[in-house]
Amino acid sequence: MTSPDLALSIDSDRLVQRLDDLARVGAIEGTTGCARLALTDEDCAGRDLVTTWMHDLGLEVVIDGIGNVVATMPHPSGRSPVMTGSHIDTVATGGRYDGNLGVLAGLEVIETVLTAGIELHRPLAVGFFTDEEGSRFQPDMLGSLVYVGGLALEDALLIEDAAGAVVGDELDRIGYRGAAPLPAAAPHAFVELHIEQGPVLEDEDVTIGVVESVQGISWTEVTLTGRSCHAGTTPMRLRRDPGVVAAQIAAYVRELTGEIGGAQVGTVGSLTLTPNLVNVVPSAATLIVDLRNTDEATLQEAERRFREFVAQAAAREGVDVELRSVARFEPVAFDGGVIDLVEQCAGELQHTTRRLPSGAGHDAQMLARVCPTAMIFTKSVGGISHNVDEYTAPEDLAAGANVLLQTMLRLTTTEFDR
Ligand code: HGY
Ligand code: MN
Ligand code: MN
Questions:
Q1: Domains contained in the chain, number
Q2: pLDDT per position as a tens digit, 322-366
Q3: pLDDT at position 1, please?
Q4: Which residue segment(s) compose the domain that 99 sits in?
Q5: What are the distances in angstroms from CA 4 to CA 7, 83, 235, 348?
Q6: Of 67, 183, 284, 352, which is least surrounded by CB within 10 A?
Q7: Separation CA 84–CA 126 (nearest Å)
Q8: Cβ < 6 A, ligand 1 pocket
Q9: What pTM does this model have?
Q10: Which H or E run contains 16?
Q11: What digits encode the pLDDT tens for the residues 27-41?
């Protein structure tokens, strides 16, 4: 292929149909959302469906030791592929586009190119990575982190969820512990299409987000241990109530984001009281604090102040505290050349564009460690995501997928043979 064919376009009905078909797997009744937590039966069913589509296209499908699945066009050259992909695991109250769009748009791009019979200088590939969400097994982006050699496979296989289930056992249970070696061979380049999951593109009425970076992420598990006692008979002066400290921490995280300002965000989304009974002062409270910032030094300052507050609040209440980092990734800058190419392709397709950082973590931030990488965002209605009401209009799905098509095609040409 010498010059890109801008007239080539994905089949948006087929893309939307596949998104609908996949959303039926783990569908949350009465909503348009789905629940496919990593390595659950629902995730397995989603994996089976997508790998069937991959096989139906005649792609070479490989599964590696952490359950990542990559499908590559057969190609005589043996050159490394231009790759796209994302994830098909979801949070427990997930929408149908987060991650799924990136995987199914990649499949759609490949089917479009195969149907058009276009000869490429190097193959295209699409993959889905295990446990991108990190909701069940921390850290998030677990599969892509192992894929690029950021975490040893043997360590990843030992990670447990809150109920004590182990990654390696769950992979075996669903039949997705593959044989492909890890770390994987680096692709030639990687481009991920994803919904923005925020309000920027919609607020500014811009069609395509040209993603320049991903902000830093810090997840710290806080375990507070007090003494359970009767909620009625125990005098307040004798109580050592970890539930109170947990609530103070959640409130402080919000205060801290106000004090630091700028790009600082934070929340406590996971909080468990034990025994969690109305008339028992808790014996323990476990929470995970999510802090993020586009600037590493500021994120470290936020972490320092949060840890200081936790120590003081626990001491005041006389409870013990244990901190454990369960995810920590510095901000990642994407490749300037690929960013420019995404912007150029979107412009040639007459779409409005805007450069922005990603507030969410993505598999692309791991692939950026091993090859030239960037991302494409498309609108999220109302900026809502990690919510069953997540929605992106068909025309925006198609716009994102066509920018992905053109960008990937350009990256296969000798012009990008770096
Ligand atoms: O948490 C995140 O940013 C991503 O959804 N895993
Ligand atoms: Mn995602
Ligand atoms: Mn997500």
A1: 2
A2: 999 999 999 999 999 999 999 999 999 999 999 999 999 999 999
A3: 40
A4: 12-215+332-411
A5: 9, 17, 76, 11
A6: 352
A7: 5
A8: 132-134, 140, 360-361
A9: 0.97
A10: helix 12-23
A11: 999 999 999 999 999
